[in-house]
């Protein structure tokens, strides 16, 4: 197994939103790191060594010690490098609320988007409906818990924990629509789409997200889909 050359090493893959999260956090904190691109069809000895339980990316190796799972890694980065900007709020109650909605996004929203991709016809229509219902819960919950101060609205200088968690995935939604179907109903979710638009315009997000065309092609290839046509763009 080849030894890492840097104190901080990220094992990831370019198309993974979970890996994008970690890259965003590292860049936001100004942490120098080595990036190792993994081929998930032929996983490296290093990846299997550092993440023997799940055998997947992302894995952050800090001073030879591995940390797995994107949400865990984000918290580790915030705790270990406690310089500004902080990813999580300092207030314990607000931190708990951010963690709650981050977990909701990962446990509810993302799996429901997979259900859309893996279905067709009436089943897909039902999956899209369920996805939008969950998105409504997210929007209403964020509005209730954070009021107008949260999430990122273009006025703050830096992204926060929930911006990173949601943005790394949701900012690619046009690629999903181009490859699969229109998933987010614009008239039903103006607040969510406004948030995502502002996140996409943030320079660090632009720099870190995978290329749109390359990602859409990857999605079509992965799910054996023909290119979609007449998809509206923001």
UniProtKB/TrEMBL annotation:
Keywords (A to Z) from UniProt: Cytoplasm, Transferase
Chief localisation class: cytoplasm
Functional summary from the UniProt entry: Is involved in the conjugation of reduced glutathione to a wide number of exogenous and endogenous hydrophobic electrophiles.
Compartments (UniProt record): Cytoplasm, Cytosol
Domain GST C-terminal: 91-223
Species, as recorded: Hevea brasiliensis
CDD domains on file: GST_C_Tau, GST_N_Tau
Name of protein: Glutathione S-transferase
Catalytic activity: RX + glutathione = an S-substituted glutathione + a halide anion + H(+)
Chain ranges of the GST N-terminal domain: 6-85
Protein family (similarity comment): Belongs to the GST superfamily.
Classification via SUPFAM superfamilies: GST C-terminal domain-like (SSF47616), Thioredoxin-like (SSF52833)
Superkingdom of this protein's organism: Eukaryota
Top EC class of this enzyme: transferase
Known EC number: 2.5.1.18
Pfam families reported in the protein's UniProt record: GST_N (PF02798)
Keyword Cytoplasm: yes
């Amino acid at each position: 197994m080849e030894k890492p050359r840097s104190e901080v090493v990220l094992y990831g893959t370019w198309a993974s939103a979970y890996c994008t999260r970690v890259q965003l956090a590292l860049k936001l904190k100004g942490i120098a790191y080595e990036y190792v691109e993994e081929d998930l069809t032929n996983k490296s000895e290093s990846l299997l060594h550092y993440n023997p339980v799940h055998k997947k990316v992302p894995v952050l190796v800090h001073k030879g010690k591995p940390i797995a799972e994107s949400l865990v890694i984000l918290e580790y980065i915030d705790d270990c490098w406690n310089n500004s900007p902080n990813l999580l709020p300092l207030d314990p109650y607000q931190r708990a609320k951010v963690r709650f909605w981050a977990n909701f996004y990962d446990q509810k929203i993302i799996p429901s988007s997979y259900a859309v991709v893996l279905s067709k016809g009436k089943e897909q229509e039902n999956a899209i409906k369920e996805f939008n219902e969950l998105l409504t819960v997210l929007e209403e919950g964020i509005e209730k818990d954070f009021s107008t101060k949260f999430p990122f609205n273009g006025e703050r200088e830096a992204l926060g924990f929930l911006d990173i968690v949601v943005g790394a995935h949701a900012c690619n939604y046009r690629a999903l629509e181009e490859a699969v179907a229109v998933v987010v109903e614009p008239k039903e979710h103006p607040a969510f789409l406004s948030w995502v638009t502002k996140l996409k315009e943030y320079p660090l997000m632009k720099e870190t997200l995978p290329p749109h065309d390359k990602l859409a092609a990857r999605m079509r290839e992965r799910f054996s889909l023909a290119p979609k046509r007449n998809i509206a763009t923001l």
